[in-house]
Amino acid sequence: MVADVVIRDQSEVDFAAVHALVAAAFETMPYASGREPFIMDALWTSGAAFVALVADDGAIIGQVAFSQVTVGGRDEGWHALGPLCVTPRRQRQGIGQALTRAGLDRLRMLGSKGCVVVGDPNYYSRFGFANTSEMFAPGIGPEHFMALSFGAAIPQGPVAFDPAFAAGVRL
Fold first, then answer.
1. Cβ atoms within 10 Å of 119's Cβ, excluding its own
2. 143-152 tens-digit pLDDT
3. CATH of range 6-166; options 3.40.50.300, 3.40.630.30, 3.60.15.10, 3.20.20.120
4. Against a cut of 0.85, is the pTM above it?
5. Which of 49, 83, 153, 160 is the most exposed place for a label (fewest CB within 10 A)?
C-alpha cells in the first residue's frame, strides 16, 4: 500500500474526476481506443460496475472497476477487471497494484468465482492471471486474454463483456 493513498469505494461525487482521470491516463497509451472514459461512465451509470474503487491522495489519482461477464452465454459468477488506470504523474508507484489487489480481494469476499482481464501478461501475471484454453474473448488475441480462478473450475466458452464496453463506439 502506498502510504499517502487511500483506496476506497468510488462514489457518485467522483464521477467527473474519474472520467477526467481515465481520459488522461489512457490518452497517450498506444493500445488505447479513446473509448475508455466512456466505458467507465457507462459501467458506472448503468450500475454494471460490480466493484469500483478509487485511489485518493486528496484527489482521485487511480481507479479500477470490475463488471460481470458471461461465459458461453451463462452467468458463471465471473467478472472482468477494467478499466484500471493511474494518473500519469503517479504511475509506477504501486497504486495500480494496490487497486488491483483490493479489487480482487473484494471480488473474493463477494463470492465471485473468478476474474478475466485483457491486458499485458507481464503486468497481470503478478496477480495470478494466466492465459487459458478454456475461455476466450472473440476478437481479442489469446496472448492478451487471461483468467484468474478463485478456486472454482474455469468455465469453458466465449466470454461476453458488459454492453458498457461498446460505449463510445461510433457506428
1. 16
2. 989 999 999 7
3. 3.40.630.30
4. yes
5. 153
